[in-house]
Write a structure and sequence with these properties.
Order of helices and strands: EEEHHH
Strand order of the largest sheet: 2-1-3
Number of strands: 3
Structural class: mainly alpha
Helix content: 40-55%
Strand content: 5-15%
Number of helices: 3
Distance between the termini: 43 Å
Radius of gyration: 21 Å
Largest sheet: 3 strands, antiparallel
């Protein structure tokens, strides 16, 4: 990414192509670029992103409940969904193995 800085050295604009005011180049994953992009988001965008993790957790719990009650079979889910749920369950299980806090993660998948 090509960047444009103000007099204080802060990034004020990004470009995918070189231009007269965009001479300096940084990798896309540079912390300065990430911080600039994050600061350009609206409060609504930030709030929505923060709820994404919580919603993913809710959906995991709903799937677990539906499977537990026999409404659906885990194998009825698309294989990509099964893989993601199993990977998250494994990660959550490892975290519980540390035994720091119990947040009620007892999903029978």
């Amino acid at each position: 990414m090509y960047i444009k800085r103000n007099n204080q050295g802060e990034i004020v604009a990004l470009s995918k192509v070189a231009a007269p005011d965009f001479a300096e180049q940084l990798p896309e994953d540079d912390p300065q670029i990430i911080a600039f992009l994050h600061s350009a988001k609206s409060a609504e965008q930030l709030a929505l992103e923060q709820t994404d993790t919580a919603m993913a957790r809710v959906l995991e719990d709903v799937v677990g409940l539906l499977v537990e009650q026999g409404v659906i079979r885990f194998t009825d889910l698309p294989s990509a969904a099964q893989d993601k749920l199993l990977a998250r369950r494994e990660l959550r299980g490892k975290r519980q193995g540390i035994d720091l806090l119990d947040d009620g993660d007892h999903l029978p998948l």
